Amino acid sequence: MNAGNASVPQGRETIAERLSALREDDRSFLAMLMENPLQDEDLVAGLELHLHRAAEARFLNALKLEKLGEWLGNAAPARLQMRLMEAARSSQHAAYQAFRAGLTRSGGLAKAYPEA
Q1: At what angle do helices 24-35 and 62-75 cross, to 10 degrees?
Q2: Which domain of life does this protein belong to (predicted)?
Q3: pLDDT above 90 (res 28)
């Protein structure tokens, strides 16, 4: 079975590439990573690398970053929502702002930490 897959660490480079492409197979791969809390560090490191690369790119695809934020906000478990928002708020660059806009639109953080 796939019991070994859950414990195999994924490099931040691989995760950043998957986040950049975000095809259907990439979404499945990322969803599998998010199921395992042991992969959280790699996932966040890959996201940070992806956002950094987007911020340094010659062309900013804000719509793609917003869609990534929205997808991650909807797909990520509650334990990751705060970490995603921390990554989104780590810079004032337009790439981070676009990602943050999508993440906020998803409502993931509000679902994970509802008001009392």
Answers
A1: 40
A2: Bacteria
A3: yes
Give exposure, 84-101, as e/b (b: 16+ Cβ within 10 Å).
bbebbeebeeebbbbbbb
Q: Tokens 């990439």 belong to which residue?
A: 26
Q: What is the DSSP string of 29-84?
A: HHHHHHH-GGGHHHHHHHHHHHHHHHHHSSS--HHHHHHHHHHHHHHS-HHHHHHH
Mean pLDDT of the 66-72 span: 98
Whether residue 94 has pLDDT greater than 80: yes
What pLDDT, in 10s, does the model give residues 32-45?
Answer: 999 999 999 999 99
